[in-house]
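Anyone? Bumping this.
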Amino acid sequence: MNALIPLPIIVPLLGAALCMILAQVRLAQRAVSLAALSSNVVVAIMLFVEVDDDGIVVTQAGGWPAPLGITLVVDRLSAVMLVVSSLMLLSVMVYAIGQGAEESRYAAFNPVYLVLAAGVSASFITGDLFNLFVAFEMMLVASYVLLTLGGRPDQVRAGMSYVVISLVASTFFVTALAVIYAATGTVNMAQLSERMPDLPLGVSTGFSLLLILVFGIKAGLFPLFFWLPDSYPTASGAITAVFAGLLTKVGVYAIIRTQTLIFPPDAQQGTVLLVLAGLTMLVGVLGALAQDDLRRMLSFHIVSHIGYMIFGLALFTLAGIAGAVFYVVHHIVVKTALFLVAGLVVRRSGSDRLSRVGGMVRSAPMIAVLFALPALSIAGIPPFSGFVGKFALVSAGIDAEDWLIVGVSLAVSLLTVYVMVRIWSNVSRRTRRSSPGSSPTTAGCRVS
Amino acid sequence: MSVLLAFCAAFLFATGTWMLLQRRLSRILIGVGLVGHGSNILLLISGGDGGNSPIIGTADESAFTDPLPQALVLTSIVITFGVTAFLLSLGYRSWRITHDDVVEDDVEDRFIARRRSPDQAVAEEALAERDQAAEEDRL
């Protein structure tokens, strides 16, 4: 069964190569990408069952032994992430084909999307810090191309800042790898976890903070999130959905992985992460409140929810981390769904402005209902997954007696309900606001 | 030798950071390149002092230089190269569109800058009225 492990990386890459060759035949491209992504789903589920039954599965790429070769590891955390991400990538691909916007216009869409899929899978199953860097780069380079695929002025402007900030993060990552290798003589995560406790506390704390900085930029943690709401909404609906659902969560996964696996308890940054988590939640939701553009609003909202995941991790208790992992899974599914519906709303009404998208209940009741379901879930209303996730996090917080962060998360949760209600009531309101000349300025924050 | 390379890396980081903070896109691109090289050099010297080339049978194995960072740095250089090429093409595209390579403030900044306080709005209206009056006088 170990032969299965590299498949989620190899199959999409092969598919990408095939798609390049078939650039002229869109139908064949679609068949190849759907086949590759479906095979990823099957492999991920098989790996998940295997890991759940027998424990961690490991393979060495090329047969080179561990410290020199590249180790690929699947444990329960990575198996869950693989299953969710592959399901999500497949459904967004179907959506992109159905929408026929970017996908049918550019021959590059299919191959680049598959490279993105390979990069995401690779970051989940690698057991080697340097290989994590390579996987991140694979994913990011694909995302640069997808973001700027249209070549419109706003995409190029947003793409510029996105690429530069990601490059700065990557440079920090290489620097972190260099100093970690110099101190420990390995980049294999399992070996690092053995050697890290021998280092002086100051050194390992420094490494821990450096890695939080690197992955914090990618995840959109509090002081480092500014690029996210600026760049995500400029891409088309399907692409924004993938970015919103997956890319930041890969950063969160990397923070969870490195903090829990590599660093000894003394060097784990519980307090720092708690403060960052609280601020991330608050700033994200307040930012969302101030927006009038539907997708910008949802993008700020991602930032707020990254805070919840980091809050669960920062408790460094079993319940907290379990809650964080559940929240990541929930958020990948629900946020992607929200962005896909937002894409439908924008397509239907021809505008991103909340003040202009009204009347969906009458003109397209299905869209209004489709939006309501994930919106209720993300707001944490009981029967949905968002409630379970928030309940798990809050009860873990109460067990750990971190009252401040519990209070912040509950307050932010109320504000989230307000944000979602505001979007929904705008989308479903019966009468469109007439006289476009006067309306835009009335809805608070707006940028023309 | 390591000290020289360490200074070199530090110098590249310093100049690169300075360039990254500039307003012109072309300088930012150079900055990204410089910082990237700095981190690559750092990765290269993380293997410790140099030694014989690590080919088994050519020399004593204990005197080998550490081959792993060299493999890592090669990968890293290739990635930096690829991404820089993409960034350059994006910069060119941006220049073709706007004919200017100054990086604009982001959307939120511009919005906040545009929000005038009530006093300021009153003052600006007064100025506009005065200008209009002057215009009418001249006519």
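Late reply, but here is one note on the structure posted above: Residues 105-139 of chain B form one domain.
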